[in-house]
Write a structure and sequence with these properties.
The protein is mostly beta strands. It is built from no helices and 21 strands. The protein has a nine-stranded antiparallel beta sheet, with no helix packed on it. The protein has a four-stranded antiparallel beta sheet with strand order 10-11-12-13, with no helix packed on it. The chain has a four-stranded antiparallel beta sheet with strand order 14-15-16-17, with no helix packed on it. This is Glycosyl hydrolase.
Length: about 300
């Protein structure tokens, strides 16, 4: 399996979300982590200060960089080229869904560029768009704390929309809220507990609903009949993508349906990439994809079915 995409600005593509528009164009929205900047600042500053990168493709395999979503008076707009060298906020983990009439984005936003993990408020903010290029800001969602990140949104069989997210103030488990109209949200509590995790993504396939979460050692998989009650596949220690190209494991990804195929895009360490000179960290990342299918009631990785 080869790398599908690397960010040409900072070489730190993470948290990819792929959608396909009405014209058949594939869009990838991702966190443009500042992996190649040697002097990004102390601690985890390099993970913050990120914009949302945008790439497009005719086939979901060969991608071209289109620019970044930059703040504007009414929200966000796609601007070609690299982001500004200096930014005043952090954008992470875009979730993009079609609601039947328009596109919606649920974006993690953080004021400033934190250099450490604790002590900084994080919120999930909704935007809407008709063309995936210009996004109108609707505002932050009132959720379970001010430490919420990594939204996933889907409409479940009962007709309600559900939003799953990581709450760092609740031991980093997945919480869920529900809505009948995507305007008013009701907090429903813990969806997935257990060991800390992040980056939930939710989809239907093979007669079941599935949630995949990033456990920083591979991906945990959960199955549901209704998108509400979840059971772990394979026991507490079972994961998929424990090993990924470039070394390490698969991280935070999301799916896209295309015909009879379901593709899962995720990020992992970039292959043959330099390490950070000061820390020795393998900061640079690439996007990969694999196919998923259901066999005997279990979610399994297909043959890699990817150009090599």
């Amino acid at each position: 399996m080869r790398e599908l995409y690397r960010d040409p600005v900072y070489d730190g593509v993470t948290d990819p979300r792929v959608v396909i528009d009405a014209d058949g164009l594939w869009w990838m929205f991702y966190t443009q982590r500042r992996a190649s900047v040697e002097d990004a600042g102390p601690g985890v500053s390099w993970i913050h200060g990120s914009r949302i990168g945008v790439a497009t493709s005719e086939d979901g395999v060969d991608w071209r960089y289109d620019g970044t979503l930059e703040p504007a008076a009414s929200g966000l707009g796609l601007v070609p080229g690299p982001p500004p060298r200096e930014v005043d906020r952090t954008h992470w983990a875009p979730e993009v869904v079609w609601d039947g009439e328009r596109w919606r984005m649920y974006l993690t936003e953080i004021d400033g560029i934190p250099d450490r993990w604790p002590g900084f408020a994080r919120s999930i903010v909704e935007y809407v768009s008709d063309d995936l290029r210009r996004w109108e800001r609707r505002g932050p969602l009132a959720l379970s704390s001010d430490r919420v990140i990594d939204a996933a949104v889907a409409r479940t069989p009962d007709g309600r929309w559900r939003l799953w997210y990581k709450d760092e103030a609740a031991d980093s488990v997945t919480m869920v809220a529900s809505s009948v109209d995507l305007d008013d949200w009701r907090l429903d509590g813990v969806a997935i507990g257990g060991r800390p995790h992040e980056g939930p993504t939710v989809f239907d396939l093979g007669g079941f609903w599935w949630m995949i979460v990033d456990e920083w050692r591979g991906m945990g998989v959960y199955r549901s009949e209704d998108g509400i009650r979840w059971a772990r596949q394979g026991g507490e220690d079972a994961v998929i993508l424990a090993h990924a190209p470039g070394g390490g494991h698969g991280n935070h990804g999301a799916q896209v349906h295309h015909g009879d195929d379901l593709w899962f895009y995720f990020f992992a360490s970039a292959e043959a990439a330099p390490v950070h000179a000061a820390t020795g960290e393998r900061r640079r990342a690439a996007v990969y994809r694999l196919g998923l299918e259901v066999e005997a009631g279990n979610l399994v990785v297909k043959d890699w079915k990817i150009p090599r």
